[in-house]
Amino acid sequence: MTSEPTPAPSSLPTARLPERAAVVDLDAIRHNVGVLRQVADPARVMAVVKADAYGHGAVQVARAALAAGAAWLGVAHISEALALRAAGIEAPILAWLHTPDSNFSAAVAAGIDLGCSGWELDRIVAAAREQQRPARVHLKIDTGLGRNGATAERWDSLVGEAVEYQDEGLLRVVGVFSHLAVADEPHRPETDTQLDAFREAVAVAEDAGCDLEVRHIANSPAVFSRPDAHFDLVRVGISVYGLSPFPDQSSADLGLRPAMTLRATLSQAKRVRADQGVSYGLLYRTRDAATLALVPLGYADGVPRTSSGGPVQIAGETHRVAGRVAMDQVVVDLGPDPEPAALAGAEAVLFGTGDNGGPTADDWARAAGTINYEIVTRISPRVPRVYVGEGA
């Protein structure tokens, strides 16, 4: 996801915002990183800024997170890491999801740490030879998630091969890592099983001669629920953006502040009669004469089409989307009271901090039958990002 950032001071009045905007509060990012550092201490914090920082803007979030004390940045793809380097960010960056077409040479040249599940090892070594500098590698063990990472059966041989290349000066094994499957459900025993497997894998690597800088497996939920998973480094994504990874705990419960507010200026407001059908399929009909407000955000902007009934705050009151979400717009039934003329230029907030009872990304996740991660990450490039707070 890429979009041109629109810098803005914290005091920017609504009237000067674009007609649609995802407003990102960089002070909230810094606050959240501070909370995570405190909870994880003495482990260091890796701020995960993959997928354009979960839709918030990778470069801007990375700078804010580093200013707040994050020690590392994490991304999925090498291309994401290279974009951060091109923006002048020199902090340690780990990229972990590769294909045979990934640009390992560019990564080695840019000093990007590389996750390695096994098959990539020869390609990383070839890139190190080409660049005439050793690659920095984090070996990944699959402790039970079943995605990338070496299996337990393959682990000893992978470590042995990596150490041979390390002895040749072609790479340094600086980390061992894995990923948890059910840390957002703290009662489940699989996390204990994964942590046991991870400790065994770390011991194998260290016994083989790997001088590890970092051992890391904890994600956002594990930071809060499993201090025994912190090791040297925690990889935090959704919590950096102020959203809770737990279905039964809110952002406020964890001391976090949601960083993104999705808002728009109303396109139209009009009075309609009772039994007026609304949006495709006419699945919604007004009960009485009502004022309908048209919000210029739809599924092309990232509003889930499945989220009919999602909350929208207009003029301080929260209402529900009426009928189907369309490509470019949603309709909100405001009931019988508001006069359309009084709504000219009014602001509609789909989600934000939740202050004063306003809607949140969690509310939209429930309406769409998904998780808050998806709600913020899917906001499309058509919606300008506006940055507020220090450093905007």
Structure characterization notes:
By secondary structure, the protein is an alpha/beta fold. Helix content is 29%, strand content 22%. The chain contains 12 helices and 20 strands. An 8-stranded parallel sheet has the order 9-8-7-6-5-4-3-10. Strands 1-20-2-11-19-16-17 form a 7-stranded mixed sheet. It has a 3-stranded antiparallel sheet with strand order 12-15-18, with no helix packed on it. Strand 6 (113-116), helix 6 and strand 7 (135-140) form a beta-alpha-beta unit. Helix 1 (26-40) packs across helix 3 (58-67) and helix 7 runs parallel beside helix 8. 47% of the residues are buried.
CATH topology (level 3) name of the largest domain:
TIM Barrel
Q: Which strand order do you get reading across the main beta sheet?
A: 9-8-7-6-5-4-3-10
Terminus-to-terminus distance: 19 Å
Q: List how many beta strands DSSP finds.
A: 20
Low-confidence stretches: 1-15
Number of domains: 2
Class from secondary-structure proportions: alpha/beta
Strand fraction band? 15-25%
The CATH H-level homologous superfamily of the largest domain = Alanine racemase
The CATH class of the largest domain is Alpha Beta
